[in-house]
Amino acid sequence: MGTPTEAPGDIAIAAHTPMMQQYLRIKAEHPGTLVFYRMGDFYELFFDDAEKAARLLDLTLTQRGASAGNPIKMAGVPHHAVEQYLAKLVKLGESVAICEQIGDPATSKGPVERKVLRVVTPGTLTDAALLSDKSDVFLLALCPAHNKRGGVASVGLAWLNLASGALRLAEVPPGQLDAALERIRPAEILVSDMLSSETLPSAPSGTLTRVPGWHFDVTSGKQRLCDQLNVASLDGFSAETLTSACGAAGALLLYASATQGQQLRHVRSLKVEYESEYIGLDPATRRNLELTETLRGAESPTLCSLLDTCCTTMGSRLLRHWLHHPPRDASRAQARQQAIGALIEAPAHVGLDALRTTLRRISDVERITGRLALLSARPRDLSSLRDTFIALPSLRTHVEQMANGSPALERIAADLEPPAACVDLLRRAIAEEPAAMVRDGGVIARGYDAELDELRDISENCGQFLIDLEARERARTGIGNLRVEYNKVHGFYIEVTRGQVDKVPDDYRRRQTLKNAERYITPELKAFEDKALSAQERALSRERSLYDTVLQALLPFIADCQRVASALAELDLLGAFAERARALDWVAPTFSPEIGIDIEQGRHPVVEAQVEQFTANDCRLDTGRKLLLITGPNMGGKSTFMRQTALIALLAYVGSYVPARRACFGPIDRIFTRIGAADDLAGGRSTFMVEMTEAAAILNDATPQSLVLMDEIGRGTSTFDGLALAWAIARHLLGHNACQTLFATHYFELTQLPAEFPEAANVHLSAVEHGHSIVFLHSVDEGPASQSYGLQVAQLAGVPSPVIRAARKHLAWLEQQSAGHGTPQLDLFASPAMAEDAPDDDPPEPVPHAAVERLRAIDPNDLRPRDALELLYELHELANADKSERH
């Protein structure tokens, strides 16, 4: 910071007021972070932080007092509403240091002692108020490994879900970094402050945070990982050789523990992810298939929104993970599908609906466990955890009865055993319906602590004492309307109306004078007041102490809670898949070791749910039929057919049932899509450049086990260039990549490809022409299409009639020219001679027939039978009159 109004760091701290000195020291420890500095009932921000927060949160910027001779800019938020402001700042990518008062104002000399207890950043959220229920939040660190020439050989990744404690490592080639980040979707990415901009991800999904380069030291990272996992080496996790990933993990753990101000007790396991473990989905594919987000950025309608009928938020989050991580190993998918079948076929008395009803009462054990490990769990977290654990035995029995030999359900049932000691402690310690915050009291159950019960009895029995005292004093004084009452300002008092004051005994001491009454205190009432008020304060203090003790006592059960949470999430998701399969008439797919895709009567899962009637289609690919050339009219359903094939394949490997009459899949290693394109203005790339970049990635990386969707390749350039590129790309996919390909095109010349490559086949989307209109059948049939119906589609889109007529006439001329010269398709950049020979673009408008004009002028709904008959005679006369004129 410069000057106090802008950045006060360059003025000697000693020149500031004591409170500002304290603030500036705290701020110096958190550069680049907004500091919420607790002052009474508000969190205040000062100087640059105040200006920034006022702008981002629409707060009032004030200027109060001075420090070091300069005015202090301030902005503040009330402490009871701080979560909503934190949520907005985090969404904007900001980090906030929460500085609390930890000293006692009554005993402090000078400013009350303050300390930053936590730092809230986009990737380290654990508070329920800041988290989306159905999405995980990941903190990721990346650490490049360089080769001998100084280039990047690989990039080590470590990412952590702080809310659940799940930690993962991976090392990816530099070219796969963007795809990995798109799959993980971290909210915050940690990079070294020494990392060059060329090494950074091209389009990071989360906030970039730079930390000191020494945080990424590999040796320190390995040791920090071992300490965190309480192991001597990382060999048991297959992570010892992942040097750059271990460096990233070290930086990640250091940062995460610093933001929380404590150890990460729930991070006790590690998983290494390998590229070969999952079906590869690059960013373009995830976007085009609309797995969890539409092309316009909405959450619905997507595959995820269709499938997410989960009863718990844990199941919803797991669904997103499964959709973005389809395993290549078909046996994992088959195990899930076997479990789904068992859930669907279970007897009615232990059926799927009853199971899901029970699951709806289950709390978010995963996130509660995370907060418990960080000692930030609130009373209602613990009561929810207790209630869930109490429900587990019956749920476990239910799953056992439904398992029907499913290994997945049997494993889940075994994992639904809650830790008995944990349940016992929660039952004894936590009230049935505790207050939201410990400071409000009423959190610890009666009977758990004798001292607390005694203090509560003293505090809560005030009412009876006051009633008895009032009766005694009325009898003693003869004042019939005497009252004994209490308020927070004056405490306990005896109130006597002014007309009865002469009857007041000598031991009454005046406490307050009102207009019509006097209020008194007696030695007996004063003694009771001291005891009662002291008991209430001591009870709250005792309760806070007991609650902290309970949290500490629950820490040994963290691993058990995580096991239960994992089982509940998987059970819920399998139940949702079963419900979708039953409701939407989906079937269990089969798998084959032979390369190929065989779908009978497949349907697009999302589109089918949006329309009244959907046309199902077959799709067959194998080693003798590797590429389908798909032709047909615009709007005929080519893109829908291609996407549905990819989505059905993905659903099968995720472990779901699929929308088809029958489906069988061979091995799939990656799914590529080149469907549609938009320019990349920020990256300086045109639409055609984006299209060619995506095509290049497919041509370089696709294997015989890959599924490739190519839609209208080459349309962004001249006709001949586009045709040449499309032809060459299709040949390369067939001859070199030998991948399973769906290739949609408007270049009719490509339909000759099967004559050269028997592994290619023509299919088309059918349509029926009626006059100048068209009806799309959306059915996929063998053979090439006869025409594209472009003019009819333009007419349906509302292109003006004169334009359509001119286009139809010009099309006839082009077809005549093409036939005369043997030209496949005219270049869009044809010579000026073509324009000279072309007919007029705008022929004269034909004169409408009188009968037609008369028909256009009437509304059939307004005609009575007699009127209709008269109109028929009138039209007959108009038609005959026209006939006689022409003769």
Automatic annotation (TrEMBL):
Coiled coil: none annotated. SMART domains: MUTSac, MUTSd. Residues 834-859 are annotated as: Disordered. This protein is involved in the repair of mismatches in DNA. It is possible that it carries out the mismatch recognition step. This protein has a weak ATPase activity. PANTHER family: DNA MISMATCH REPAIR PROTEIN MSH1, MITOCHONDRIAL, DNA MISMATCH REPAIR PROTEIN MUTS FAMILY MEMBER. Belongs to the DNA mismatch repair MutS family. This is DNA mismatch repair protein MutS. The gene is mutS.
